[in-house]
């Protein structure tokens, strides 16, 4: 009898359970309402922006096509994450299948990287518009947007598709409770009975390669823009340049600040509640999505006028 007491029995699991804010159940109550409002704002504002750009001929320009791509990415990210989280808050629907979990993991990693890449392309657009205005119509064309979209899709799919594949190939036994509201890569991988060193290394390398290179190029673009503006002696040139770049810079600030706070909370996770990184991870998928179209709609005169004309026509 004693010979069997030291034998560990591994049971292969067939699905996961999202353990969302169980340490702080009150968070679910006060977070569900603002999260719902942010989700509705994100979906409605991005839908209005897409319809406006689609129906207004004056907005059929490369910059607004890139903005449309950004709105599409935001909508997909919101639909991938927020309904799942709200279902947990309202109906305690915590189970998620293997296939749904790894699909969500792929979409989150891929589309966040695609959003970062889109910001980088938009920064290049602003650089050409301010530093080489005479060449802008010949460089930033519809063909450029098509090539940029293909690049954004290809680069980020190729780099992020190994993330769910590496996680799916692991052997999961016994514990199937994910300490998160969503299927984040390492939250899932650490449940396996296998070595996850490769998963950690690839997640780190892919994240810094994609997001890091985009941020460096964005910083370089704005550094060149700032240098060019400071050299101009024309009165009001700086104000006009900042007005042109202001909306885009604010969007990048929203995106990168939340991401930076999320990284810092992970670094100092021993000093804060484990639920804080989880909450920031969820909010990172909805706050930029809600603010992006509002910022562009408020600060861009052409979009404001387009929305007003559509409202007057009654669509």
UniProtKB/TrEMBL annotation:
The chain crosses the membrane at residues 31-51, 63-90, 96-123, 144-166, 205-229, 241-264, 276-298. GO terms for biological process: cellular response to lipid. It is found in: Membrane. GO terms for cellular component: plasma membrane. Residues 45-296 form the G-protein coupled receptors family 1 profile domain. InterPro entries: GPCR_Rhodpsn, GPCR_Rhodpsn_7TM, Olfact_rcpt, OR51/52/56-like. Its main location: membrane. GO terms for molecular function: G protein-coupled receptor activity; olfactory receptor activity. It is a multi-pass membrane protein. Keywords: G-protein coupled receptor, Membrane, Olfaction, Receptor, Sensory transduction, Transducer, Transmembrane, Transmembrane helix. The keyword Transmembrane applies. Pfam families: 7tm_4 (PF13853). It comes from the Eukaryota. Signal peptide: none annotated. This is Olfactory receptor family 56 subfamily A member 3. It comes from Oryctolagus cuniculus. The lineage of its organism: Eukaryota, Metazoa, Chordata, Craniata, Vertebrata.
